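Thread: pyridoxine-5'-phosphate complex, take 2
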Amino acid sequence: MLKLGVNIDHVATLREARYRGLPQGEPSPAEAARLCEAAGAHGITAHLREDRRHLQDRDLWQLREVVQTRLNFEMANTPEIVAIALKLKPEIVCLVPERRQEVTTEGGLDVVANEQALAETRKRMNDAGIEVSLFINAIPTQIQAAAFVGAQVIELHTGRFAEHFADETERETELQRLILAAKQAHALGLRVNAGHGLNYKNLPLIHRVPHMEELNIGHSIISRAIATGLPTAVKDLLGLMSDYRG
Ligand code: PXP
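Output below.
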């Protein structure tokens, strides 16, 4: 079964638009996580960025209390955030690149260039009982390096596929890249997740990518929730994912 991890950062983005710098405010990411889980989500994904532009530290601890399924902590590989992860003890961390200027995580990790540092963090997390995923572009050398680093999971960056969705030729090229990457990762013993830019329209096509275990989806769910409410937005998406055959 293809699982859904709901990326909850966007709830905090809305709160921070009004309440930045204040110790409270609405909407609450923890309450949203509870609703997503009750609607059938298999996990909650949360990214504490170094600049704290959306989730705040207090959100993380609240999420740790509330989340009953699986907390996936998205994080940059920096000493401050690594220390927080080791204290938080999420079920899994997803290491991502972070640039302050970006609107959202734009590219995948350069695992090849950062093999040593990633391998060290991977080991520290695993020693603490936390699984490790690496968010990467569908590039053979990066996938090979992810296996070398010893990650349990890769999350394939689907952003380019989503961006090019309107152009049939371009989207087919991106889809083929993702298909090959998933096959390569699976052959190397890596588990395969995917995410970024996935929505109710482009999701059916992503079913052609084999071996996927989990999709991490945020923006489109929170956007749809404005019209339908969060439980319906989650259930609609789970319905679209239910006929995935791997
Ligand atoms: N996976 C990763 C690693 C991400 O950084 C994001 C964006 O926060 C997502 C998945 C979800 O992307 P989207 O909000 O476009 O669904």
